[in-house]
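SECTION: protein entry
WANTED: fold as tokens:
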Amino acid sequence: MTVGRSTEVSQRERDEVKRIIKRLDQLKSDRANFEAHWQKIAKVVMPFDMSFLSQYQTEGVDTDPRVYDSTGIHSNELLASGFYSLLTNPASPWFDLSVANQKLANNSAVKRWLADVTRIMAYEIQRPQSGFTTSLHEGYRSYGAYGNMCMFVTEKKDLTGLQINSLPLSECYFAENAEGQIGSLYRVYRRTVLQLVEAFGKANLHPEIVKAYDDGELSTKFEILHVVAPNIEADPLSIKAAKAMPYKSTYVDTKHGLVIQESGYNERPFMAARFYKASHETYGRGPGSNALPDLRMLQQIVSTNLRAAQKMIDPALMIPDQGFVSPISTKPAAINYYRTGSMDPKGVVPMQTGGRPDLGLDIIKDLQMRIREIFFVDQLQLNIGPQMTATEVMQRTEEKLRLMGPVVGRAENELLSPLIIRCFGILMRAGKFDTPPEELMQPGVKLQIVYTSPIAKAQQQVEANNLTRAMQVLTPFLSFDPAAMDKFNTDKTVEGVCSMYSINPEYLRDDSETAEVRQARAEAQQQAQMAEQIKNAGIGMNNIASGMDTLGQMEQ
């Protein structure tokens, strides 16, 4: 017997669905121009992702046969791998939690709790079950090609951990808030009957979907719209999650005009990042957009060059008129018959067109080099020559990283920070962390994220390297005026350098411990000085006594 939700829809629900669909239509219209642009990029950078060419892509289709050079594809893959390894490498810590108050940050209890929380978060985010490592690489490919990526973070159904997914850009429609950030997500996607029943249950689905499930038509797909938007009427006292939480979640069965689920989120569950962004545009642009003219030209030049090479390798033939009995065959070991006396003395000769395929090679190499530069291949690989000195390596690295600064900053702001905040909230509510120390429970205390990825470390070490060079310049002055070091706050310098090189805070003493060590050293030095003074006083007394003895002997 077919079971499902009632097909009777209240006026409030009809109005809500109508409002949502109207807003979706507006967002689709706003994105239409970008879709045409993304189609052109997809052909030469991500030919396996042609979802913008049709509403729903057929799985397993061949790539575009008109792609003759894979430089764009390979460069985008290197960009994605570079971001993955230098920005979010799971093999090494890439973020820490801290507090702005330096005194509070040096507190031993606070440091231990923050270190434990960071360790637990890193494990939960990067464990295979979360999907972080695989999904993030997919997102980075979209980030480089289209300049946009979208991640989605939620709890696993069994509440055992995090579930992190990369959403296809073709399914996502963005809306900016008043601050210029992506505040709302409209996602249109299709799911099979089996997936819908697993996700929402029979009781919340339309009878048509339930009937398809009962009839075994499990692969039949239906379109679903998922809307995540700020809840401007949030009521923390409401017993309904959709009204109590800061973000509202609504799932709509677009075919039947039904709201199949309403809920909410405590944090923004999606992270929409833009590679570059124009002030008047909602969607971003990436290296794929900048390299598109070179990519299209490269395909044309390579195609032309291939045709020229084919003409030289397998040229057209010139044969005598009426010389052969049947059409000539150029296959190996072929036999061709001709009429006696009809053959030209020269026989069959190749036709020379004068083609020069070699002339296009320089143009091809130049285009390939420009495309790799646009995709930051050189910056992300940080190539070091065998004959380079340490100073040259340092200067080369600093130069490359300065070029990556704006890109990395936007990725941290729009992607990584919201992701860490979302994961922290989920794990905190799941009881994964110990109770925070009382110092962190004070009003106004906020946690802050410190990035320690390889590229973040390299950028921070630029300052450390500058400090090193400054000390090298000042060393000659210190030889004749040691008081010049009084200008340096050595404690702050040590803490700053250790932070730049991401030294574990547990390796450093806090202020109280440092004061105790210095007091003990001062007392030891004082005792040593007193002992030396006593020793010197004893020697002096002995000298006086010896002098008195000598004087007495002289008087006698």
Q: What stands out?
A: The chain has a mean pLDDT of 83. The two ends are 137 Å apart (CA to CA).
